[in-house]
Amino acid sequence: PKTDENKLSVLLLHGQAFTSNNWKEIGTIQLLGVSGYNVIAVDLPGYGKSDSNKIEGENKGEFLGELIKTLKLESPVIVSPSMSGSFALPYLFSGDVSIRASGFVAIAPVEPINIKINTPLARGSADEKLGIASEENLKTIPNNAIYIIPNAGHACYINNTTYFHNILYGFLRSLTK
């Protein structure tokens, strides 16, 4: 929850082969926490330590909306690697996106995105599976920035943490100026 005007909430999602704990392991939670952001990392249904089954289709967006409401997050920045976009995008598209999120950080998105909020894309230089497609998926967004993270694969935020943290921190700072 926001406690003052400049304190953003950041919701960290995860990719299919990962969990919320990865954000702790690479220091993202700690970095953003000491920088004054409200940071929440969650295990999506059917992954990590969640005790629920996987969710299909449009229910993913509804789940994320209920989670954000339950956590009392006000227009969070959603950081969404790969598969987690299947939760984030239906949520963002189900209402006024500028109210639903302050920003959306797409990491190697697996599907096209057409959204009207600030959206940086990060992809790994060595992402042979989805890297180029990820970049194409973001070209239609008016307020985007594309970052190709060197020496990194599909999980570029884990492969080159320092580079990714610089992108994320710079983006968050730009939202509070």
From TrEMBL:
GO CC annotation: cytoplasm
Protein family (similarity comment): Belongs to the AB hydrolase superfamily. ABHD14 family.
Protein name per its UniProtKB record: AB hydrolase-1 domain-containing protein
Residue span, AB hydrolase-1 domain: 10-91
PANTHER family: AB HYDROLASE-1 DOMAIN-CONTAINING PROTEIN (PTHR46197:SF3), PROTEIN ABHD14B-LIKE (PTHR46197)
SUPFAM superfamilies the UniProt entry points to: alpha/beta-Hydrolases (SSF53474)
Keyword Cytoplasm carried by entry: yes
InterPro entries, per database record: AB_hydrolase_1, AB_hydrolase_fold
Keyword presence, Ribonucleoprotein: no
Pfam family for this entry, one: Abhydrolase_1
Main location: cytoplasm
Lineage: Eukaryota, Metazoa, Spiralia, Lophotrochozoa, Mollusca
Organism: Lottia gigantea
Sorted UniProt keywords: Cytoplasm
Localization annotation: Cytoplasm
